[in-house]
Amino acid sequence: MMTRTKKTAAILAITLSAGLALAGTVHAQQKTMSIGTGGTGGVYYPLGGAVANVLSKNLPNVQATAEVTGGSVDNLKLIASGQSEMAFTMADAALDALQGKDKFTSGKVPLQALLVVYPNRMHVVTVEGTGIETMADLKGKRVSTGSPGSATEVMAFRVIEAAGLDKDKDMKRERLGVAESVNAVKDRKIDAFFWVGGIPTAAVTDLAATPGMKMKLIDHADTAEKMNAKYGKLYTASKIKAGSYPGQDKDNAITEVWNLIVTGNKMSNDDAYAIVKTLVEKKDDIVAVHKEALSFSLDNQVQERSPIPFHPGALKYFKEKGIGG
């Protein structure tokens, strides 16, 4: 009896250890992918959450997670340090990182584009009663130019410069994210803020819908040409169409820049191919979370929209679909 019990125990122990070894193998094959997004009031974060869900659901052994960050610049630094496998970024910040300029003078970041995602529209936001009607009226005002580590800050400085203003001398500058900027406007702590993001941005919708306040968006499309002359062909004049936000009764003439999903130089061709294929082909699941994902389309996957070279795995998928890349 005793011997049989010992035998059973031994068999159980062997089975258990074999099971654990197998579980270890399965666990080893599980890839965790951290996706750098942005603040909770913007578009990168909900969109990044949808991307993470689609990848985790459709790719075997991939567990993707969306991380709250300061935005593009932070995300590119997370790619550089290996803390993130993928990241949302604006094209201008990505080019700075690739070339080791501006906020990346400590070293170039080896980047590859996976997907051109959607255009980011620059919002210059104020409310009635501040006396701000044009870019020139920002002089002497309290203005937020975006959170540190965001591409809002990068582009805001360029728009201000192209408008003939000095970011340090001509305004009292704050460095707030979009949600914090909206709260500061409501509390009359700042007069205006810059935000570059998708349409609609939840925090801006919140301000526009605030009772007793009338939101105003300031035209600045004329700055695109000057920015391109200095920084390369990254920006285009565009518009935020009337009705994009509550109470917005006319088109707002703005500048825009494309967003990308990028990776570093470590992702395999197979992984890049599978990720890009999944994001394009499961686009509708992402659109259900935010309509900017409508731009995750093959016709946007052209190199002129991205200053970052496409990953070979992404190019393979585009070529299969008849897109030059």
Shape descriptor? globular
Helix content: 25-40%
Biggest beta-sheet profile: 10 strands, mixed
Report the C-alpha radius of gyration, rounded: 23 Å
Task: List the helices and strands in order.
Answer: HEHEHEHEEHEHEHEHEEHHH
What class, by secondary structure content?
alpha/beta
Average pLDDT rating? 91
* Extended strand count: 10
Distance between the termini: 72 Å
Report the total helices.
11
Q: Give unreliable regions as ranges.
A: 8-13, 20-28
What is the percentage of strand-forming residues?
15-25%
Structure description:
By secondary structure, this protein is an alpha/beta fold. The protein is 38% helix and 20% strand. The chain is built from eleven helices and ten strands. It has helices at 2-29, 44-58, 72-80, 91-99, 151-162, 178-186, 202-208, 223-231, 269-281, 283-287, 312-320; strands spanning 31-36, 62-67, 86-90, 112-127, 142-144, 172-174, 192-197, 215-217, 236-240, 252-263. Strands 1, 2, 3, 4, 5, 6, 7, 8, 9 and 10 form a ten-stranded mixed beta sheet that branches. α5 links the parallel β5 (142-144) and β6. α5 crosses α8 (223-231) and α9 (269-281) crosses α11 (312-320). Mean pLDDT is 91; it is low at 8-13 and 20-28.
